[in-house]
Design goal:
The protein is of the alpha+beta class. It has a 6-stranded antiparallel beta sheet with strand order 2-3-10-5-8-11, with helices on both faces. α4 packs antiparallel against α5.
């Protein structure tokens, strides 16, 4: 039976229930991903991100209502607010991973030059393959972080772990560059890339209540026309397409994984009426909300 709301996944939950090595509620380290629960019901990532590497076997799951298959030598990235369900492991599945609080990740990403790639990856490529040598490097990072987590009395333990995570994310971004065949970028972000990152962050925080490009442009102190030109150039999507993506993803999750009434979803998503909600959903998804809830997709 569906819940009224989608049960959250938090760093605190795994720290308390799985006795993982941790840095307070900012990090929970999985030396083996076999301890992850096999879930059929939906859970929402809450103020955290999961990065996992599969070393053997297969895990299948749905991320924001899309089926994903993670096999050996694959990276799995589940970001804040994503909804996961139908998690099933093969008997020989294993790997290692880490939960990072959104707060700590945000502090780390301030220094990451390839920020826009990481955001694009989180929305469009939650699973991708990496090479054997990249897995070994990642394993070294995880082993070093695990050792640092044991050093309770190290005066600069948090700072050292933060730097190790920063290094891991640089290598992670480099692997993504190769996967999508992007040319080598400059060491520093362009103004357009920084603007794109700021825009995506604003949309993540406000898409439930704000769906007008003009509002985001005003918040960023630029004109709507300039915002549209920059976002379209950097991401190959218009600002409206990004906003619609966030809105429809949340609608799908609420329709499939909660028992909220249509009128309640419309209210939660700040639509003036259920009919406006239904029209918006059909225009962007291709079927009515009722059909989608019943498993019918275009």
């Amino acid at each position: 039976m569906k819940n009224k709301n989608i049960t959250p996944i938090t760093v605190e939950y795994f720290v308390e229930n799985y006795h993982l090595k941790n840095l307070g509620n900012d990090i929970a380290l999985f030396p083996s991903m076999r301890v992850l629960p096999q879930l059929t019901e939906a859970r929402r990532m809450s103020l955290c991100v999961f990065i996992g590497i599969c070393t053997s076997g297969i895990i299948t799951l749905e991320v924001n209502d899309k089926k994903r298959v993670v096999s050996s030598n694959s990276v799995m990235v589940i970001t804040d607010e994503s909804v996961v369900n139908n998690i099933v492991f093969s008997d020989d599945f294993d790997g290692f991973g880490i939960f990072i609080s959104y707060k700590m990740l945000h502090d780390i990403l301030v220094d990451v030059a390839y920020m826009s790639d990481l955001f694009l990856l989180s929305h469009n490529h939650p699973v991708f393959d990496i090479r054997e040598d990249e897995i070994e490097i990642a394993r070294l990072y995880f082993d070093n972080i695990r050792k640092r987590l044991d050093m309770d009395h190290h005066r600069y333990r948090r700072e050292v772990i933060r730097l190790q995570l920063l290094s891991l994310l640089y290598d992670y971004s480099n692997a993504f560059d190769r996967v999508i065949n992007q040319p080598q970028k400059k060491d520093k972000q362009s103004r357009g890339e920084r603007m794109f990152v700021n825009f995506v962050q604003l949309v993540e925080q406000n898409f439930r209540t704000q769906r007008q490009v003009q509002w985001y442009a005003k918040e960023m102190d630029i004109t709507p026309k300039y915002l549209s030109e920059v976002i379209s150039t950097v991401s190959r999507r218009t600002p409206n397409e990004w906003i619609d993506k966030f809105v429809t993803t949340e609608m799908r999750n609420l329709l499939r994984h909660t028992n909220l009434k249509m009128s309640e979803i419309a209210e939660e998503m700040n639509f003036p009426s259920q009919s406006f909600f239904g029209k918006y959903f059909k225009e962007n998804v291709g079927v009515t909300p009722s059909d989608y809830r019943n498993g019918i997709e275009k």
